[in-house]
Amino acid sequence: MTDTMSTAFTRIFGSGTQPEAFFSPGRVNLIGEHTDHEGGYVFPCAIDFGISALAGKNDSGTLRLYSMNFDGEYSSPFETTYSDIHEKLTGQRTWVNYPLGIVSVLKSHGYTFTSGADILYSGNLPDGAGLSSSAALEVLTVRIFSDLLGFGIDGVKAALYSQEAENSFVGMHCGIMDQFAVSMGRKNNAVLLNCSTLEYSYAPLELGTCRLIITNSNVPHSLVGSEYNLRRTQCEAALADIQKVKPIKCLCDLSEHELDEYSYCVKDPVTLRRARHAVSENARALRAAEALKAGDLAGFGRLMNASHVSLRDNYEVTIPELDLLASLAWEFPGVVGSRMTGGGFGGCTVSIVESERAEEFAEVIGREYEARTGRKASFYTTGSADGARRVNSL
């Protein structure tokens, strides 16, 4: 990839800029789904798929951006001045809204852009699979500017600035999990993050003879136009009902026992199921971290399976294709655990599979999935990775 990106960088930006190399991972959430907006815990890890970049200062004072994934039809980079960045673009090359949003947010926090920059991006994250390509691009851009211009932005601030850019500039009102995992990931570890306080710790993700396999249903993962916002509204309604008798700030302040105790307050059974998922999933995330710390991979796998069942039955964000992939995985010898990952309504499952069975896993499940759905699944064997960083080479 070095020669390809280096050659492309020189062709697009000229030979006057000496670029540095950067990499930002994607992420997969191992457990703790749809708890972040309810003040709970999430348990993701960064993965070794991601977005690479070559970046350097230029003397023109302009920001020039090019993506090897999206800009193949263009011979020249997208170009703008820092002072011209006010609102997101519509139409073509809308991917640039993510780095432009980062510039806008950094400017609003008082950072001064004293030099132009040339940035070439190239990634291998499947688009629309729910592996946080947008967060990877955002955090990567923060890291590039921090290093090139000496901003000295730490990992937590990089995550917060990236979330702010997606919320206020791009217009997607996401939680903090994706950006935090991408920024603060640590190889051979998962991150246990309290989304209310941003307190975090690491748990060893020692898989032994197993690997993580991400299976893409190839049903496009899209929270826009889905019932995602309705689920949040239903959780808010459950919270409001319970707050009438118990002073809590968020649903995940409750234990499972306390939710049972106060469930009489929630009159709508559907709304109660949404709350039950959030509270039980929060408890599972905490138990999952303890299982890994104790070296109990089998126990961790059982929690993954239970998480999928709750997402299917209580939160109802799975789809038949994801349910099929999970159930096929549960039946396959050598699978420790499997669940949908991400927002739902499409996207991927994540499974822990014995390495020696990984090839057979993809072959058998892929064949059965296509036979039943008419769709081809895609399989990605991966591992945990460090967060966004400068690298010696690509």
Structure, explained:
This protein has 394 residues and is of the alpha+beta class. It has a domain at 2-205 and 385-391: Ribosomal Protein S5, domain 2. Helix content is 40%, strand content 22%. It has 11 helices and 12 strands. It has helices at residues 2-13, 97-108, 133-148, 155-170, 177-184, 228-243, 256-262, 269-293, 297-313, 320-331, 358-373, and strands at residues 20-31, 41-58, 62-67, 78-81, 116-123, 189-194, 200-204, 210-216, 335-341, 348-354, 378-382, 389-391. Strands 1, 2, 3, 4, 5, 6, 7 and 12 form an 8-stranded mixed beta sheet that branches. Helix 3 (133-148) crosses helix 5. 48% of the residues are buried.
Percent range of helical residues: 25-40%
Number of helical stretches of at least 4 residues = 11
**Number of DSSP strand runs:** 12
User: How much strand?
Assistant: 15-25%
Give a short synopsis of this structure.
This protein is of the alpha+beta class and 394 residues long. The protein contains eleven helices and twelve strands. It has a domain at 2-205 and 385-391: Ribosomal Protein S5, domain 2 (2-Layer Sandwich).
List keywords for this structure.
single chain, 394 residues, alpha+beta, Ribosomal Protein S5, domain 2, eight-stranded mixed β-sheet, four-stranded antiparallel β-sheet, 11 helices, 40% helix, 22% strand, globular
